[in-house]
Amino acid sequence: METVSYTLLKKRAKESVEPKKRIAVIGDCATQQLSTAIRGESIRRGFPLAVLDADYDQMEAQLLDPNSEVYSFQPDYILLFASYEKLKKRFYDTVLSERAAFAAREMERFCSLWRAIASNSKAKILMFDFPESEDAVFGNYALRTPNSLGFQVRKLNMLFSEAIAADYPNVYPVALSHIQTALGNAAFFEDRTWYLAKMAVCTDALPAVAARLLDTITALAGQVKKCVVVDLDNTLWGGIIGDDGIDGIQLGELGDGPAFAALQRWLLELKRRGILLAVCSKNNDDTAREAFEKHPEMILRLDDIAMFVANWENKAHNIRNIQKTLNIGMDSLVFLDDNPFERNLVREMLPEVTVPELPEDPAAVPAYLTSLHLFEAVNFSEEDAARTAQYQAEASRTAAQAAFGSYEDYLKALEMKAEILPFDSFHYPRIAQLTQRSNQFNLRTVRYSESDITDIANDPAYMTRYMTLTDKYGEHGLISVVICKKQDADTLFIDTWLMSCRVLRRGVEECLFDAIVKMTADAGFRYLAAEYLPTAKNKMVANFYETMGMTPLENGKYILECKKYQNHTHSITII
Fold it and tell me: Looking at residue 377, what is its pLDDT?
């Protein structure tokens, strides 16, 4: 793991780089150094931020005033830093009879600030949770009595999590408490620094804080890891299955088996969260699969693997094949292999792939991988858990295609059925997730939070559609999103059009475009307008609107007169 110092971040922060987004930092403690660290880390990651460091201890004054400096800055993100030390002071100033309700009162204060931000800005809200620090007033009994600071801080953190999970989807937590645990309190906080400068985090700890914050911000911008490609021998289990046999590999309680089992459990949790797992092993295919099928202490099974590649080709070639088959970006892959030669080969030939430098000791691997924070999530939907099955079904479709004389015959045989409906509350999390994760088939690449999607769905100025797809092999789930905005009395504008790349070239885009044109005409609009905004990743749709029948104008703009439109031919039944 790369070690980054505050001195380095301070130097990087001075670089003149055009910002991609804007963040306002406001707290009840000194935030100048934190703001510098955030700016430096954002530049280091290639996602430069313009940073406003708001005045000290002015949270209410800034956030309740619609004309404040914070709102005039027009930030994309607002970071709130309510420090533990100020929290402790407010608790000590509370009379004993009211301390049991302290956490609830604090939570209402923060909720009121979040509501104020939502009323005055479209910014996404980021907020640190509260680290714990023993005050030694009650000792261990602090965990039992509501009159203790420790009890109330733990309760406040729980109320914080419950509130943002239930009612505030536009608030994204950053776990300051995890950083304190990882570094140790002595490295995280220094009393003298607080008393003299009101800094709630040590200078040396600021790079870690900035890094965790940027994890969330870049995930909101769609920079996420989607797949772990894992080696087998001495990576997923101890030993070489081709030499040692299924009975000789280390799993369960044998040798280093508990460490390999811990790694497998972690990977299984990633899979349940929606991260794809793929195998890339130099092995005979039947030998490599044997452990998954027959070893009683294997935690991962073949059903957990979206793509299984075991042969004697070089691993860079196989990873290219995995990336192409899964149809995801190369920079969304993480490759795990115990062999330094294989790691270096992939780094050299596929520099976009993330290749952690795994420790030699298998017991150190799980903790090392969790410390890298590679799999930041900003949302979760039920469809995430089904993602592996969807990609396995796609492999069955690919195999079946070879049996047909023509591609058109194959599409007809798939028996595809689609639903095209306005946004509904059940699908808000998945719709928001798609806007944040989709990069390739995304015409304007606008990112929306779940609260943004809620607002859009309830705003009469917008017309929305999502599309789900099923076929005889299984469900694809929600695969496309369209957001249209009324531009004037005659024109409806396509603000967002995105689609999962795994359903390309099946008539999905034609079917949905037909439906959008019909929706436009039925609503009384004469024209449908659109725009393509190029990015480094969406070149595949540069000519999409033109191929759909729209007339190109200047600067990536398109127009269509609805009455002159002719529907496309496809093999999808709308239900």
Answer: 87
Structure tokens at 415: 């028996």
User: pLDDT digit string (tens) for 31-67?
Assistant: 999 999 999 999 999 999 999 999 999 999 999 999 9
Q: Which residue has the tokens 């406003």?
A: 52
| 260: pLDDT strictly greater than 80 | yes
Angle made by CA atoms 372, 159, 106, in degrees to the nearest 5 = 110
User: Half-sphere exposure of 95 toward its Cβ, with a 13 Å CA cutoff?
Assistant: 2
Q: Within 10 Å of residue 181's Cβ, how many Cβ atoms?
A: 13
Helices in 376-497 by DSSP H: which ranges? 382-385, 387-401, 407-413, 428-437, 450-457
Interacting residues of 95 by C-beta distance below 8 A, sequence separation 6+: none
Residue 354: DSSP 8-state: B
DSSP reduced 3-state for 466:
strand
Cβ neighbourhood burial of 238 (10 Å; 0-12, 13-18, 19+): buried
Phi-psi label, residue 327: left if phi above 0, alpha if psi -120 to 50, beta otherwise: left
pTM of the complete model: 0.76
State both tokens at 369: 């991988």
Q: Are 129 and 174 in contact (CB under 8 A)?
A: yes
CA distances to 43, 60, 116, 536 from 29, in Å? 24, 13, 20, 39
In angstroms, the CA 548 to CA 515 distance is 12
Q: Is the pLDDT of residue 506 over 90?
A: no
Whether pLDDT at 1 is above 60: no
Distance CA 452, CA 448 (A): 6
Provide the mean pLDDT of the chain: 92
Which residues make Cβ contacts (< 8 Å) with residue 455, sequence separation at least 6? Answer: none
Does residue 100 contact residue 147 with C-beta atoms inside 8 Å? yes
Q: What are phi and psi of 111, to 5 degrees?
A: -60, -40
Identify the pLDDT of residue 141.
94
**Beta bridge partner(s), residue 417:** 470, 573
Using alpha carbons only, what angle is made at residue 233 by residues 307 and 317, rounded to the nearest 5 degrees?
45
Residue 399 to residue 410: CA distance in whole angstroms: 11
- CA distances (Å), origin 118, targets 63, 77, 410, 451, 455: 10, 12, 49, 9, 11
How sure is the predictor about 390, in pLDDT bands with cuts at 50, 70 and 90? confident
Please give the C-alpha separations between residue 442 and each of 276, 418, 437, 507, 536, in angstroms, as whole numbers: 21, 20, 10, 17, 11
User: Tokens 């040396």 identify what position?
Assistant: 204
Phi first, then psi: what are they for 253, rounded to 5°? -100, 5
Q: Per residue in 60-115, pLDDT tens?
A: 999 999 999 999 999 999 999 999 999 999 999 999 999 999 999 999 999 999 99
Q: Which strand (E) or helix (H) includes residue 272?
A: helix 257-273
Q: What whole-number percentage of the chain has pLDDT above 70?
A: 96
pLDDT recorded at residue 406: 78
Please give the span between the terminal C-alpha atoms of the chain, in angstroms, as a whole number: 51
pLDDT of residue 222: 85
Structure tokens at 68: 């404040």
Spatial distance between the Cα atoms of 56 and 66, rounded to a whole number of angstroms? 18
**What is the per-residue pLDDT for 384?**
67
